[in-house]
Write a structure and sequence with these properties.
Blueprint (H helix, E strand, L loop, with lengths): L5 H16 L5 H11 L5 H7 E4 L10 H10 L4 H18 L2 E4 H12 L4 H4 L12 H7 L4 H5 L2 H12 L3 H11 L8
Antiparallel strand pairs: 1-2
């Protein structure tokens, strides 16, 4: 059964890490290690601008170096650090769990559900011009938007952020509810 909330995800990770490493990691440490694995400095940083996805797609290449660095910061010895870093990276890769910036997710959903709409957004997000190349973007966009619609973990993360007033999370939730090719007014 796939985790539906961050709490369920952390509980499942805690059980897997105990099984794979023999170490009983606290949930606060797991939060920080997961954030490091996703490229963030802290859990707060991860959960304020990113959404955790569990859609079975291969995650971006995970390196153990950030997890290892965070393990050292949390006070783990060298042996624990090595085992924990490898086991966590392998678990995330196997489960297809990764984080995506919510603003990037909104762009991906728009490109799939409303082809051609990215050009209208260019003035709202300066610096994202590299996302607007027509043919190149069409060929490289992820094909997992339908899977995100069914991911309870992703929906939970987006709903939590939308409830806190995050406009990107609100936009992502609205877009996920649209049928393909519907125009948002």
């Amino acid at each position: 059964m796939r985790p539906r909330t961050h709490k369920e995800l952390l509980h499942a990770m805690q059980q897997k890490m105990l099984e794979r490493t023999g170490l009983r990691l606290g949930k606060s440490h797991l939060r920080e290690l997961l954030a490091a694995a996703c490229g963030c400095n802290t859990w707060a940083g991860l959960t304020s601008g990113y959404v955790l996805l569990d859609i079975g797609e291969p995650p971006p290449e995970l390196t153990t170096s950030k997890i290892t660095h965070r393990c050292v910061q949390l006070g783990y010895d060298e042996a624990q650090t090595s085992v924990t870093s490898v086991a966590l990276a392998n678990h995330l890769e196997y489960e297809g769990i990764f984080a995506m910036r919510i603003r990037d997710l909104v762009g991906v959903i728009r490109s799939v559900k409303m082809p051609g709409s990215l050009h209208a957004e260019q003035s709202q997000h300066p610096g994202d011009e590299h996302l607007l190349d027509d043919e190149e973007h069409d060929e490289t966009r992820p094909e997992f938007v339908d899977d995100i619609t069914h991911s309870e973990l992703a929906r939970h993360g987006l709903e939590e952020l939308a409830d806190k007033g995050n406009p990107d999370a609100t936009a992502a939730l609205r877009l996920l509810k649209l049928p393909s090719l519907e125009v948002v007014m």
